[in-house]
Amino acid sequence: MKKKTLLVFFGEYRTFEYILPHLKNLNMVDIILSTWSISTHGLDTPHLDNFYLKNTNIENIKNKLPNLRVIVSDNEYFKNKSGSWRMVYSWKRALDSIQSDTKYDKVFVQRCDTITNWEIILDKKIENDILYIDNEYVQREVLDMVPFHLVNEDSPKDSLWVDDKYFYGSFSTIKKFVNLVIIPDDIGYGMIHDVLGKTLLKNFNFKFLKDIDIKYRIVRSYHRNFIKKLEEKSIIFSELINTDNSYSHEFDEINNPN
Fold it and tell me: Which of 58, 93, 127, 258 is at 20 to 30 A from 207, Cα to Cα?
């Protein structure tokens, strides 16, 4: 049986419905959405109330994506946990739900509120024991270039700061990585990047996603009207984020209006 690619969306639901029309080749893969029952609109819009993920939200998406499977965790289970803990938990629920370790040859994992050109991995050959990640080594000599809360003061001279917006690799490598990441209940803001880096340094070979030109845009609540406007014009934003164009500039110039 020919192996397939799995696309995993994780984390708070946020603007998930808005990004879907701007992602390509979703019909070519299996998809899992692993989220939780209550979502905020993000730190950029604290004046908006949290919203509860309803069955109508899920059914609307499934009607558009029959290859989508949805895993919704009850927010009551981890209401006192940090956002980083919840994020890693959503990774684990998605990967642990796969019955066969041989069904997928590639897994791409990304945030629910992010538009990427993820589809370029479909034609990429991957090394089975490599984890493909975002961001680079952070040398102690250049820590002044990195926000202070992103690097643990106890980090070794060669510390790896790893972003958590997206990563990919073989199914076995992704599952191993997800199960090895241990998040303390009281983890400080931004320290997830250091935890991910230490997990990688101790257990994995890795390559940077910048080397295969993965691009992204995080879609905040205040981007919704812009994204809807592109959809009405039948413009797929993921086709534009690789290029220098007026739409990308307009998106980047939109700031929180409040």
Answer: 93
For the chain, state the CA radius of gyration: 18
pTM above 0.85, yes or no: yes
Nearest to 220 by CA among 244, 189, 254: 254
The H or E element that residue 86 is part of is: helix 83-96
Q: How far apart are the C-alpha atoms of 28 and 119, rounded to whole Å?
A: 9
Q: Show pLDDT as tens, one digit a residue, over the chain (258 residues).
A: 567 999 999 999 988 999 999 999 999 999 999 999 888 765 555 556 677 888 888 898 999 899 999 999 988 888 788 888 899 999 999 999 999 989 999 999 999 999 999 999 999 888 999 999 886 544 444 344 444 334 444 545 456 778 889 999 999 999 999 999 998 877 877 788 888 888 988 898 888 876 667 888 899 888 888 998 998 999 998 888 877 788 888 888 887 655
Asked if residues 115 and 102 have their Cβ atoms less than 8 Å apart, the reply is: no
Question: What is d(CA 192, CA 84) in angstroms, rounded to the nearest whole number?
Answer: 6
Structure tokens that stand for 248 in this block: 């990308």
Domain limits of the chain? Answer: 4-253
